[in-house]
Amino acid sequence: REFFAQHHFREVEPFPEGVATGVRAFEAIVRRALAKRPVDRFESADAMRAAIESVGGFSLGERNPAVPRPEEPIGVFSRAEVVTDVAVGPVQLIASPRLVLGRTGHAVVRCVPKDAVNEQRSLTVSRHHARVEWRGGQAWIVDLGSRTGTSVGGRAVTAVAPGVALKSGDEVGLGPHVRLRFEHASVSPGVLPAWARFTRVDPHGVGIAHVVVLTEASAGGESRDAIQLPAELALGERVVFRAAEGVITVATKEGDRDTLLADRQVWKVGRVTLVVAMETLGA
C-alpha cells in the first residue's frame, strides 16, 4: 500500500545539493518526464528530445530507425462486408478461428469519416494491433507489441501471453481513439460460442461492427442474431452464415443446403435487403 501511494502521489524528489550546475539544468526536464499526471508530462518523445537538446545546447544526433516487428501471421480467412437498406451496418463478417485487430488483418479498424484528422487517428492503431483467440470456449486478447497499447475496461493488456480473458460486454481499447464493445452468443462453459461481435463505440466509428463467425451467425430480428435487423421489418426471417476452414457459406432457410458466399449476393430478410461485398481468401 505504501509503495502504491508513493508511486501514484509522492512527487519526485528535487536534485540533491552539490549537483553540478550542468546536471541541475536538466532537473525540470526530469521532473516533467516523471510527473504523476499524464497531462503534465511531455506530449511526445520528440518534445522531450527537443527540450533536452535546448537545455544542453547539443544535438542527440539522428534517431535510430525503428526495428520492424515481424508481422503476425494471420492465416487463411474470409471476410465480407454486409450492408442493408435500413440503418444497420456496415458489418464486417469474418470467418477465422482467431482474430487479428488492426489497420490490416482480419478485422480492419480505422477511424471514419476519412479525412486528414481521422487518418492520423487511424495511424495510432498498429497494422496488427491485438489478437483474440478462443481457449476452451473463453475469448482472450493479447497485445501484439502495438505502439499505443491495448486495454480492457481501461486496464492495459501487456504484449505477453496469455493476455486478458474477455467477458461479454467488455470494452476493448486499441490506442487512444478506438473503443470496441465485445459480445458473444450465449454458450455453456467451455463451449465455443457460435459467434462473437466487436462493435465500435467511439465517436470515430460508432455503429461499425465486426462479427466473427466461429460456427454460425445469423442476420435477423431476434436477440440471438449476430446481425440484428429491425424486428418489425425482418418479419421473423433470417439468413444464416456458417464458417468452416476459413470459408463462409450461407443458407436462407432452415434445412437448405449451404452455398458458398459470393461477391454481390443479395438477399431479402422480410422487408430488409442484404448486400454482401465478398473479399478473396487472405493468407
Molecular structure report:
The chain is an alpha+beta fold. The chain contains six helices and 20 strands. The chain starts with a helix and ends in a 5-residue tail after the last strand. The mean pLDDT is 86.
Throw out a few tags for this protein:
20 strands
List SSEs in N-to-C order.
HHHHEEEEHEEEEEEEEEEEHEEEEE
Morphology call: elongated
Estimate the mean pLDDT confidence: 86
Largest sheet: 10 strands, mixed
Uncertain regions: pLDDT < 50 for 5+ in a row? none
Helix and strand topology:
Elements: H1 2-9, H2 21-24, H3 27-33, H4 45-56, E1 78-84, E2 91-95, E3 98-102, E4 107-108, H5 116-122, E5 130-135, E6 138-143, E7 150-152, E8 155-157, E9 164-166, E10 171-174, E11 178-184, E12 195-200, E13 209-213, E14 216-220, E15 227-228, H6 231-234, E16 238-244, E17 247-251, E18 259-260, E19 266-269, E20 272-278
Parallel strand pairs: 2-13, 3-4, 14-15
Antiparallel strand pairs: 1-2, 1-20, 3-5, 5-6, 6-9, 7-8, 7-10, 10-11, 11-12, 12-13, 14-16, 16-17, 17-18, 19-20
